[in-house]
Amino acid sequence: MPPPQPGSVGRRIAYYRGVARPRMTQQQLADRAHVALGTIRKIERGERGVTDDTLDAIAGALGVDPSRLVADRERVSTRIRDALPELSAAIAAYDIPDGGPVRPLPQLRAAVDQATAWRLSAQYLQIARAAPALLAELARAARTATGAGSPELATLLVTAYRCADSVAYKYGARDLSARLIELMRWAAPGADDPLLSAAVSYVRTEVFFAARAHEPGLRALEQAVDACPAPDTDEAAAARGALHMRAAVIAGRAGHTDAADDHLDEARALGDHVPEGIYQGTAFGPDSVRIHEVSVAVSLGHDHVQHAFDVAREWKPPADLPAERRSGFYIELARAQLWGGLMDDSFESLKVARRIAPQHTREHPWVREDAATLRRLRGADAESLTNFAEWCHAD
Q1: What's the angle, vertex CA 175, arms to CA 173 and CA 178, rounded to 5?
Q2: Domain boundaries 1-71, corresponding CATH code
Q3: Of 70, 145, 165, 307, whose CB is crowded by the most CB atoms within 10 A?
Q4: What is the mean pLDDT of each successive set of 10 residues along the chain, which is 395 residues long?
Q5: Which runs of E-coded beta strand occur in 136-226?
Q6: Domain extents for the chain?
Q7: How far apart, in whole angstroms, are the C-alpha atoms of residue 225 and residue 245?
């Protein structure tokens, strides 16, 4: 059941407290958020407002992104954009870190794992708040690391850069995103792990997508496939399969139907022998490949959207897939439905995407384009569509 759309922060907090598994009492929420019980009660009754710090603490205790608790999601987006300069400053000193403290390796590993979980669930505000300090600390740790800890610290640094990049890329800071990807490429050799290098090549494709440089992007991915280890383990098969998935999409954007089909076939063959999971920070398996079938159909254009409809008619992304990937499926499907003249279905798909991952959906350029198109085609008298278009800043 989706949360109520209108209403106060307090009603939203009460809703997510009630649907938590196991259900959380006000006292338990207060204890986990380190907020006074009386404060929780007053917030839920609408008797007092919520500061950003309190909102973040409550959201963290509930295990949801702060954007799910506020009706004014512009507030969250503004906070993320306001954090980008601090993130830029942190990576500017990547090779000359300060002399601050460094936690033990297990604690750093846990912090990076948490950031990865936020990335996969499209909780970008959490990453934006934590990433600058985490990247600075990892830079200090990597600078002084020796022996067996050095490769793992390099891996953690690459993974943290990837989390920070997810915020920069999704929020349109493309120059910052490109710098973070170059830092991923700089740090990866220290890990001495070809599967991590394959993951970096997967992420690097963002640069080519952003520049609409599809031909060189396809070449880069095909070179990465050639350099990837033989798929004789699940991890290696997933690394190679993820590269094929992304190569299929960018080949579609380049208009190369045969290449897109070939890469998708390779990804499908590998996915059939790998359990769905997260490998080197990337979801791969049969469900991820099926989502990319829709992505490829949309990338190839109008003549291929029927395949997107065929996939969606028989299958929906399971709830245990990462939120960002599931919302992406519905965003792609919405575009196919719009092209096919299925305007009501397209709008429903956009609303599903928003329920799954509101920040990811709100900042996606296709969502804005398609919401604006739907609004023009259906007319401004459709109140819910108008509200949606205003929510995502559609023109």
Answers
A1: 110
A2: 1.10.260.40
A3: 165
A4: 57 89 91 93 89 88 82 76 94 91 95 96 92 96 81 96 97 96 97 97 97 97 97 97 98 96 98 96 97 96 90 95 96 96 94 92 94 82 80 82
A5: none
A6: 1-71, 316-395
A7: 11
